[in-house]
Amino acid sequence: MGYLLFCDVDEQGNITDALSGVNIIPSRQYDYFFFTMDEGVVEDVSQYKVDLEARQLILKEGVYYGGTNIA
């Protein structure tokens, strides 16, 4: 099952507001939309940010994911 993530970001790509779930319809326009199969992303979206150049959702630097330190 996939998850939808709608989010707004600041100038550095940090997520400032988000709406996520399986079958959701946002009531307003968001800056970005992502589809992911990873439930962990929607469980703790604060661990992620948007790479503004690549327009991709990425794990923040220094955050541990699956036992690995992402730097």
Short recap of the structure:
By secondary structure, the chain is mainly beta.
Structural commentary:
Mean pLDDT is 89; it is low at 67-71. A three-stranded antiparallel sheet has the order 2-1-3. Strands 4-5 form a two-stranded antiparallel sheet. It has a two-stranded antiparallel ribbon with strand order 6-7. The protein has 71 residues and is mostly beta strands. The chain is globular, with a radius of gyration of 12 Å. It has one domain (3-69). The chain has one helix spanning 39-43; strands at residues 3-9, 15-21, 32-36, 48-51, 56-59, 64-65, 68-69.
Number of DSSP strands? 7
Global shape: globular
Cα(first) to Cα(last) distance is: 29 Å
> Which band does the percent of strand residues land in?
35-45%
**Oligomerization state of this entry?**
single chain
> What is the string of helix and strand elements?
EEEHEEEE
User: Helical residue percent?
Assistant: under 10%
Q: pLDDT average, as an integer?
A: 89
Number of continuous helical runs: 1
- In spatial order, strands of the major sheet run 2-1-3
Q: How many domains comprise the coordinates?
A: 1
The description of the largest β-sheet is: 3 strands, antiparallel
Task: Give me the Rg, rounded.
Answer: 12 Å
> Which secondary-structure class do the elements indicate?
mainly beta
Low-confidence stretches: 67-71
